Amino acid sequence: MSEQDLILGAAAGAVLLALCAMFWLVDQRRRNEAQAEALRRRISELEAGAEAAQASVEAFDSALLAVEDGHASLTSGQESLTACAAALGLAPTADPQAVVSALMRADPDHARRLRALFERGEACAFEVQGPGGAVAVEGRAAGALAWLRLSAVVGQDAGLPTAPRFAAFLDARATPAWIAAADGSPVWVNAACLAATGAATLDEAAAKGLSFDKGAESLASEAANLGSRRQSLRWTTLEGRRRALQVTAQPLEGGGVGVWTDDVTETEELREALRRHVEAHDETLNHIADAVAIFGEGKRLIFHNTAFAELWGLEPAWLAERPSHGEVLDRLRQRRRLPETADYGKWKAGELDRYEDTSSGPDDLWSLPDGRTLKVGRQPHPMGGVVLLFSDITGELRLKAQYNAQIQVQQATLDKLNDAVAVFGSDGRLRLHNEAFELFWNVSGDQLERAHDFEGVVELCVRRLHDMNFWRELKGRVADPDPQARAPISGEVKTSDSRIVVYQSRPLPDGATLIAFADVTDARKLESALADRSAALAEAERLKRDFVGNVSYELRTPLTTIIGYSELLERSGENLSERGRAHAAAVRTAATQLARSIDDVLDMAQIDADEMALDLADVNVAELVGDTAERWAKEAEAAQVSIKVEHPGDIGLLRGDARRLAQTLDHLVESAVRQTPPGGTVTLAARRTLGEVQLQVTDTGRGIPFHVQAHIFDRFVGRERGGPGLGLALVKALVELHGGWVALESEPGAGATFTCHLPEAAQGAAGHPELKF
Known about the structure:
By secondary structure, the protein is of the alpha+beta class. The strands form 6 sheets. It has a 5-stranded antiparallel β-sheet. The chain has a 5-stranded antiparallel β-sheet with strand order 7-6-10-9-8, sandwiched between helices. It has a 5-stranded antiparallel β-sheet with strand order 12-11-15-14-13. The chain starts with a helix and ends in a 14-residue tail after the last strand.
């Protein structure tokens, strides 16, 4: 290759190299221009952002400080920094570092929070109160810098907390509070709300579908839609207890709904207790007899009990419409159930004017046209209005009149008593006394009225009865509250004028004590005289018994001899003439009759002395009647009288004294045979009825006059029937000894029937009370 070629080649290479360098330079220029343009746009954007940030900071009146290595510098908000310096009491030209130092000096807690921000990057928010106002401080860390935003709080906003402080305030509430969206779902909740849902965070609650109360969320949605506050009472469970919460939803400016709750459990429980109390009060009023009506402040009926409607005869449906007081009075007047008055309008106005009274007036008495009397009481109601009480005292007045009349009758009755009577109450005061009490103790009624109590009465009476022990014991019966001490007592005392006084005390049902005194001086003298007379009569009775016994003994001995010799003469045969034997038989009959009469007298004397005893045994009634008929068969045949015996075959036994029962029948049959004319009949009958045996003797004689029948069983009345007149009296006495009784049925000219009613089992000791057990 030639040198020329080399030169051309080198030139061409140089040209190419130059071209390449030029193209590279052009490309680099274009790149640099594009990069510069991009940087210019970035710078413009940063400048616009800085201006926007500066404008935003200044728009919200806040100063932004950057703190690095403890040195603070102002980033934006010079005017706000000046305002904060003035609020903290610094010069308007104070630099940022001086402001930060003032913040740290304001409160040790603020200094601790700022150091934690500068050294460890812990966010903080607080408010500093300075001489010229308050400064709100918010601190955040970003990289190596700590940023502080300072806002001066002056004017109307001086008392407003910052958002973090307000959030902390809501978090401290013991009841749930939250901010909800328009659909009611919570967007922020406090700690109490999270605790109620059982979630740690709001996101966790949303993820699990947990909710504090669906009804509260619906209320928040309703408040958002209506744009007005809504309230509702919700019952829910908090911390294991059922609580009542007042939920309030308030739409917020800028959107959302603030929801908070207040625990009103105690209030609701008190309201429920009050409701139950009012119901119980109303129920109680409905069960009382007095009529009650309550009129409110508007003078309309707000309550009435059942007795009110019944007392006035008003319809419950009409009363349920709550008529006014005036309407009630008008209706009652139309039905003539109010007191008659000449000027009803004035009377009505006076009743309605009582709403102005603040004190309870005296009760009124209303006399209604139907004769009833009502006591009307009025009381101001604590909640306003008037309470009216109507009591029907018609019966009370009637009872009071009856009581007063009874007291007057009682006093008049006591005044008619001869005994001195005084009634003392449980408090020892004299309640009642009669005129005899005044005369007995020689005191006047005025003196007793002034005495008042038991002690005063004793002072008036002690001059007649000096025994103070007696008065003390009597006072214990009057004033001692122990029921045993008030037991009835009685006794005798002697007064200073030698009178014998009987006293007695009796407790009365109402706690009072009745004390009575009686002068028994004359009675004791009479008793002594009667005792002497009784002793004399007892002695005379004893002498009579002894005389009867001696006489009967003396008479029996010769009678026995007479009867014996007369029977011997009757059996002498032909040695004695017929006439002589008749005389002997007459002597024997008379002696026998006399012996029987003596026995009757002795028996009556023994019965009178209560010394006769029955020898009880089982007596065959059929044999008793048959033997009696056989004993009197001969006498009846001689008198041409027939004797009949009637009794059932199973008449059975009778518990009694066979000898005394036979003696009873003998007297009755003897009397019947003597009173029956020839050709007549005497019937002995026996029959058993309910619990008794009846022994009956019937004759067909002349009967007994009516005026004699009432006294036929008296002594010495039946002489005309033969004997001394003791036979029927002895019959009555013997039957009564057996516990029975005797009955007589007779008509003049139609005979007589004597019936002995004997119990099946006689009382053996009837004649000897001392033998009874």
